[in-house]
Design goal:
Elements lengths: L1 E5 L6 H14 L4 E5 L5 H11 L8 H25 L3 E5 L2 H11 L4 H11 L6 E6 L2 H9 L12 H17 L4 E5 L4 H11 L1
Parallel strand pairs: 1-3, 1-4, 2-3, 4-5
Helix pairs in contact: 1-8, 2-3, 3-5, 4-7
Length: about 200
Amino acid sequence: MFISFEGTEGVGKSTLIRGVADHLQAQGIDFIVTREPGGTPLAEQIRGLLLTPDGEKIAPSCELLLLFAARAQHLSQVIEPALSRGQWVLCDRFVDASYAYQCGGRDLPTTQVQALVEQFVSVLPSKTFWLDAPVEIGMARAGKRSALDRFEQERHEFFERVRAVYAARAAAEPQRIVKLDATLAAEEVLAFAIKGM
């Protein structure tokens, strides 16, 4: 299976991924854990460009293209080979994040993301866990971490738009996208995720 984990900042994606990884390991299931943007040395360099808050302002269209450049490399070097070996793939963010952040947050046309998906994305997740929490809760959690990255420094309204797109996508694809209440305790979120697999 190819499982992606989505949500705004501070909703507990990393914690859930660790829990699912522990569960799969206990079941004897071979898997890899990866992330977007990133997952390969080149894609991690692109991640650095995208997340570093200082320096040149990145145009929304440039941000979108950089993300898909990293994604193309990630698919070719990590995700496709793992799936062909029969491994499960646990990925922190994938295509849904581009719709949420670049179309919702940055107000780019959905058609731009759709065109890039059609051209450059060879495989989509079989299951997506969307961790949902009110923006103020997620941002309060994210604020307790070290320095905020370029996305985490966005305004409240940006994340409300991102969350709204995640909600719309979950409503449109209920078989694939499982909404999880990220305000619950981590153990409860994990239990619901395991049940949803």
